[in-house]
Amino acid sequence: MEAALKTYFGFSGFRSYQREIIQKVLEGRDCLVVMATGSGKSICYQIPPLVTKKTAVVVSPLLSLMQDQVMSLKQHGVKSEYLGSTQTDISVSGQAEKGAFDVLYMTPEKAVSLPSRFWSNLQAAGICLLAVDEAHCISEWGHDFRTEYKQLHMLRDLLVGVPFVALTATATQRVRGDIATSLTLRNPHIVVGSFDRPNLFYGVKSCNRSMAFINELVKDVSKNCTVGGSTIIYCTTIRETEQVHEALVAAGIKSSIYHGRMGNKAREESHRSFVRDEVLVMVATIAFGMGIDKPDVRCVIHYGCPKSLESYYQESGRCGRDGLPSVCWLYYQRSDFMKSDFYCAEAKSQTHRKAIMESFMAAQKYCLLATCHRKFLLQYFGEDRTTDCGNCENCTRTKNERDLSKESFLLLSCIKSCGGRWGLNLPIDVLRGSRVKKIVENNFDKLPLHGRGKDYPPNWWKALGGLLLAHDYLKETVHDTFRSISVSPNGYKLLSTADKGDGASLFLQLTAEMIELEGHGGSQCKEEGLNPLGPSESEKISEDELKIYQVLLNVRMQLAQDIGTAPYAICGDQTLRNFAKFRPSTIARLANIDGVNQHFISHYGSIFIQNITQLAKELNLPVDDLSAVESIPAAPKPTQNNLPRSLGGAKFCSWELWQKMKFSFQKVAHYRRAVPIKEKTVISYILDAARDGCEMDWSRFCEEVGLTHEIASQIRLAITKLGSHEKLKPIKDELPENVTYEMIQTFLAIEGLGLSDQVFGTVPTDGIQSKTSEAPKTTSNGSEVGADVCDASPLTKRGQTDGSLICGDEPASKLQKIDGQGVNSTAATGATEDAILELVEGRNGVSLEDVVKHFNGSKRECVVEMLDNLEGNFLVYKKNGCYMIM
Ligand SMILES: Nc1ncnc2c1ncn2[C@@H]1O[C@H](COP(=O)(O)OP(=O)(O)OP(=O)(O)O)[C@@H](O)[C@H]1O
């Protein structure tokens, strides 16, 4: 599992619960996973197919989300596709049912409409799980109820024995129950993680939504953009979306717009330009809700109170998914709270309507809070959080607590005197001395309290009402869409102290709105801009490092444009920051950095190393900061993914030992056999696997077979001369004696796969040639060979994992790689990569000193180089200063 995690995703360790969930799924157990937004739920269904080589089917509600995930997975070397209305490739479905994909996404509509034949075929090919992402959509109590989700249980009968995994970030106890029942989960393993997103700062402000406010907001967003990272601004109406977008464009900020009245194509284009960093800001309605998986969104702004606290959590959860500090701001205006009818209009049942009302009220409460926002959010989701977070607007702004007992007694008494049948507005109007019809008709203008609250504006009283609700002195009752406020038992207790004349003091924290209304507030947007905290200590990098980081951002952007993907799909911002900070100069050092996967190493490794070393030189900075390398956890051994499922056992096994375990032909031939098979049989097995589509390290293969660039040219010439390559013997007879059948077979296999140019042409030729054309310095002066090894390209290095080097035209087996000793001494004390691997494998963590001591006949630098090579090739990794086997 760890190997797949590092190889495909570049991560060196699982986050909380991931391992446990994957383990359960592999055991065939149903799971119900409730974990925070951005906590890494996807890995839970993405790793099992890579381990089992069977397809994982993922039901997901949004096409845009699926498309992003497919794009990202492809960049990680994971075979992935989606089925849904926007899929234009008609062959995908056919390939999918043959099990061609590791991860197959589909909409719920698609999942329930596919013929049963599709499912039986896929099951025959191999299916390791069915994941239902955003599973809260199943429940009417969830904030995004989707009727099609209710039909997913139909798949249960079609997929006998397949574990179902339901995943969501937002599910109260009631929603969890609905999910388990609706999907008929069987004895599910339930994981409920913390909802906390510690890297997110939560801020709330009241605003008036004037053009002046929008302009101020634009200024703040613009400041934020210069710091880097993307911003999403969620608006509650299409008109506001357009207004804010226009203001951003007028200010010269690259931004996109996204709302439900735009056509599919325009929306897709908008989405695409945002994920590819062509624009920095996305202004959207909640139509953009769950559909964004971009890890480097640094700021999410809600311009208006969201329709529910669940959707707020979900939408603000798009922020800082890579774990870096990020900010979430919510700007509300009191008129937002009048929208309950509008939201309830979409109710599909009475229960649904009640659920909509309840969660809308929770969102309001969140807006009006004077205490810790995070605590409130977490408590809403049932998490017992007693301490304030210190990382939200209310925790960080200067405390403004005051004895509000007098005002509170007034408001509570007025609400009580009005009979507790109204909302907050009427009693407040009474306090402020209004004589509107409703007040006069009910004789409330005769109350002694009438007109006693003129010192404060209505919104101040409303804010106080919000505080008293939050502190449980008032209670709110919902009747359909109408809400009434009455005094709670706690409130009566408080009032009774006033009646007795010994009125208790009531110290409450004033909300930002109250302070502003009292005339002490500053501008509506924060003076510090949107980011009140700045980078944390560990986040800080020097000015020079920042320069490198910015160049690397451009390199990544260019690469992404060239291959038509999103920059984040290549690697994350944090990974680039670590490159800038630690400046790895070798593939091994690069591979050691978190977030670097095998696909990255093989496709972009050398480009980044080139840039990093060049920039470090220009800026006079050292490379390979050793303390950093120690501190960054590292890498597991690669797992092969594209396994043809038709390949016979012996062939597959030989290929797996050679390619995955990096065994030599000889070692494969002897592996667990009383009577070893012939090496030439091993070679032909592996070549068959390659023809069958298995991934191959051709550079290493050629080295081991002894097929050099020169020999390849000779073979090509011989074939041209003969005009045929049907029979091997005539070709062999045309060639010098040292050219073996195995070399010819290898050459023909490479030709047959159309890889000649790649293997013998540009890039790999360098790798092979550099080894073949240089004088063999191996036998007498190993340290020089060591130096060659260090400088070799990744392709060349991979060829050395069994300890062999090709020198000249000599077959590899004759030139066992040594490092300072003669061939004869190698077995005793000389280090080879193979021997080091064996040593590491046999122990649970071995330090560099131990390895050096063990190979006491070898030079320390050579051992270090070999270990570096092994790290770069994802065969060993370093943890707490010890080398471990992947
Ligand atoms: N073990 C890990 N180590 C480091 N990063 C990880 C790990 N697992 C996941 N991540 C990263 O965390 C981020 C969020 O992961 P993911 O998209 O799976 O979140 P999620 O739980 O599905 O969130 P949401 O509910 O919001 O969709 C991604 O950028 C992912 O690459």
Describe the structure.
There is one protein chain. The protein is α/β, with parallel strands linked by helices. The chain has six domains: 1-192, 3-Layer(aba) Sandwich (Rossmann fold), CATH 3.40.50.300; 200-396, Rossmann fold, CATH 3.40.50.300; 401-509, Arc Repressor Mutant, subunit A, CATH 1.10.10; 543-619, HRDC domain (DNA polymerase, domain 1); 649-760, no CATH class; 833-885, Arc Repressor Mutant, subunit A, CATH 1.10.10. It is 48% helix and 11% strand. The protein has 44 helices and 20 strands. A seven-stranded parallel beta sheet has the order 3-4-2-5-6-1-7, sandwiched between helices. A six-stranded parallel beta sheet has the order 8-13-12-9-11-10, with helices on both faces. β10 (255-258), α12 and β11 form a beta-alpha-beta unit. α24 (543-563) crosses α26, α30 (649-660) crosses α32 (679-691) and α34 (709-722) crosses α35 (728-734). The longest helix has 21 residues, at 543-563. The chain is elongated, with a radius of gyration of 33 Å. The model is unreliable at 521-527, 628-647 and 762-828 (pLDDT under 50). Bound molecules: adenosine-5'-triphosphate. Residues 11, 14-15, 18, 35, 37-43, 169, 293, 295, 317, 321-322 line the site of adenosine-5'-triphosphate. Belongs to the helicase family. RecQ subfamily. Its main location: nucleus.
